[in-house]
Design brief:
Layout lengths: L5 E7 L3 E7 L6 E8 L3 H15 L1 E8 L9 H17 L3 E5 L3 H14 L6 H24 L1
Parallel strand pairs: 1-4, 4-5
Antiparallel strand pairs: 1-2, 2-3
Length: 145
């Protein structure tokens, strides 16, 4: 576990990137923002701004693996993105298994939709799924330490 301070969680996708931040004691993850993935340069700039503002000490990126633990084409994309991010912003990066976080995220969104947020389940899902997934990735990581 890194020195005390906030951690940033990332759910990387080709179109959207979910961002979550922990509290300073590294106990709880909070969903923050959804970044449109138009270019690595723009995404890295936005993540750097968040890291600077929040004084992030480490970044945790969800690593997409097959259910059998094998790497995929997307795994390699995420690893490449993580290495580029580390080189450009200079904050330590760790990868954390993200298997089943999409299913967990869907379950949370379904519950929110059923409880009547005033938005359709489809609209909630599109807006929030990646942010919730980032929170789950980060919270799962925090729970291990």
């Amino acid at each position: 576990m890194p020195k005390k301070g906030k951690l940033l969680g990332i759910d990387y996708g080709d179109a959207k990137i979910g961002i979550a931040i922990s509290d300073e004691s590294q106990t709880v993850a909070f969903g923050r923002v959804l970044i449109k993935n138009k270019s690595h340069e723009a995404v890295i700039k936005q993540i750097k701004e968040i890291c600077d503002k929040e004084k992030v000490v480490e970044i945790i990126i969800g690593l997409p693996l097959n259910m059998d633990g094998e790497k995929t084409k997307q795994t390699r994309k995420v690893e490449h993105f993580g290495e580029t991010l580390r080189l450009q912003i200079g904050i330590p990066i760790k990868f954390h298994d993200e298997r089943l976080t999409s299913a967990e995220s869907d379950a949370i969104l379904y519950t929110l939709g059923v409880k009547g947020s005033g938005k359709s389940k489809k609209k909630i899902k599109k807006q929030e799924q990646d942010i919730i997934a980032a929170s789950l990735i980060l919270q799962n990581y925090l729970n291990l330490y």
